[in-house]
Amino acid sequence: MFCKHCGAEMNEFQAVCLNCGVKKGDGMRFCAYCGKEPAMYARFCNNCGAPTGIKPPAPAKDPNYLAGNEMLLIALLCFFVGGFGVHNFVMGENKKGAAKLILTFCGLISCGITTIACAVITLIEFVNILTDKYVVNTEKWF
Ligand SMILES: [Zn+2]
Ligand SMILES: [Zn+2]
Q1: Is residue 112 in a domain?
Q2: How far is the CA of 57 from the centre of ligand 1 (A)?
């Protein structure tokens, strides 16, 4: 039994490492079975093959695409209240949401031209959301 923090040898009855004071089983640098240093985040010791108990970091989810379970909700928001950018705000795309609000309300002074433009943009987004092509981008305005 070895300290996983500093690699010093420990007996089974020790609760903490006498060398570094770390609790038994804490630390993630050294293999508890052979005391050698497994590669960072290795799930198995590269010296003795014992499982290290280290969970590999979860693969980062692609932030650009909508999670499947939220897709329907976002699509519905986009369809019914998309002209007010509600679906954009829900996804954290405040700029796109604000742009839609401006376009929609500018329709009052542009005889609805900007409102129609907003509706077209929203419709394109709606289709992209449903076909899983929509890319979430919090920096863009459109
Ligand atoms: Zn130690
Ligand atoms: Zn080992």
Answers
A1: yes
A2: 24
pTM over the 0.85 mark:
no
Q: How far is CA 140 from CA 33, 44, 82, 97, 99, in A?
A: 52, 43, 16, 10, 10
Mark whether 35 and 85 lie in a shared domain. Answer: no
Token reading at 100: 């839609």
Q: Mean pLDDT, the chain, as a whole number?
A: 87
More confident residue, 114 or 38: 114
d(CA 50, CA 38): 10
Task: Give 63's pLDDT tier (boundaries 50, 70, 90).
Answer: low
The reply to whether 136 falls in a domain is no
5: containing domain: 1-59
Separation of 45 CA from ligand 2 center, angstroms?
5
Ligand closest in space to the Cα of 24: 1
For residue 29, the CA-to-ligand 2 centroid distance in Å is 11
Is pLDDT at 53 greater than 80 in this prediction? no
Which-ligand-closest: CA of 17? Answer: 1
Total structural domains in the chain?
2
Q: Are residues 50 and 76 in the same domain?
A: no
